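Annex B. Sample input.
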Amino acid sequence: MSHKVFVPVTAKFDADGKVIPLDMTWIDGRVYEIDRVLDVRRAASLRGGGLGMRYRCRIGGKETFMWYDDNRWFVESKVNIS
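Annex B, continued. Sample output.
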C-alpha cells in the first residue's frame, strides 16, 4: 500500500506563473535534483489519495510523480511515516 508523503521542494516560478520543481528533499534529508519535468497535468494520486497538479519528473534517470496541491508537495511512497 502506498502513502502520501509531504516533502520540501525547491521550485522556480516563471513570469507566466508556471511552477517548475528543481529539487526534492526526502524524509531522511537526502536532496534529489529533478533532471527534467516531462509532463504536468491535473490528476489524482490513486495510491496515496489526493488531487493536484501532477508532475511527471525524471530524478536520477528514473521517472516518478510528484503532486503540488494547496501550496504543498507530496509523493507516493511505500514508507509510512505517520
